[in-house]
Specification:
alpha/beta, 216 residues, 39% helix, Rossmann fold, single chain, 15% strand
């Protein structure tokens, strides 16, 4: 069964935290390819001042030397709000029902998962790999969840990565990755303050930001 990872986000801008997480999850879960999907109009973010085209171009530069990473611009080509369920339905139409899709998500984002558009349908079309915060475990994450999500996690949880290969959708797993304390917010502020962002993101992305005078 073909296995595809999905990493969505604003990528405003993309940095090594995104890239390292994607690589470690690909290795851990034996995923064939990862689609980086920039959100054009994210529902849970305030207005993003940098255009989707710029953010996609930075992702393209950042992943260009990794044959397992792919820039997927389907949300940029869609009008309206960038809902995850619509992206999954589009991927399913393209890849068929046999591919295993795994959506990567931070455990902190999962605490609000029940506010997502048509959230109860999402697991019908993919698995979810939750990325734990440093020094946390499944039990600690569960304590932060509303009751409805605690039950949802318990019902669908697996620690066996092979489950994600043996079915196309329906499981939630939790994985720890190397803790890189890098944030897009801090990077944007560093550019405003003309501070160095070297070693926080690929040099090609830094050059692009400077060339196009972003985050000034």
């Amino acid at each position: 069964m073909k296995t595809i990872g999905i990493l969505g986000g604003t990528f405003n801008p993309i940095h090594y935290g995104h890239l390292r997480m994607a690589q470690e999850l690909a290795d851990d879960l034996h995923i064939d390819a990862i689609h980086f999907i920039p959100a054009a109009n994210p529902p849970h973010k305030n207005s993003v001042t940098i255009s989707a085209e710029h953010r996609a171009a930075m992702v393209d530069l950042a992943i260009s030397n990794n044959p397992h990473f792919t820039l997927d611009v389907r949300e940029l080509n869609r009008t309206g709000t960038s809902y995850t369920i619509d992206t999954l339905l589009s991927l399913r139409a393209e890849l068929g029902s046999d591919a295993s899709l795994t959506l990567f998500m931070g455990s902190d984002a999962f605490t609000q998962f029940n506010s997502w558009h048509r959230w109860q349908e999402i697991l019908q079309h993919c698995h979810i790999a939750l990325v734990q915060r440093p020094h946390t475990n499944k039990n600690q994450t569960s304590k932060l969840l509303p009751k409805i999500l605690e039950e949802f996690l318990h019902t669908h949880y697996t620690e066996n990565g092979e489950d994600l290969h043996n079915s196309a959708a329906g499981y939630i797993t939790m994985r720890q990755v190397t803790a890189l304390d890098i944030s897009s917010t801090a990077i944007r502020e560093a550019f405003k303050q003309q501070a160095s962002t070297r070693y926080l993101m690929p040099d090609s992305v830094i050059d692009y930001i400077k060339t196009h005078q972003l985050y000034k």
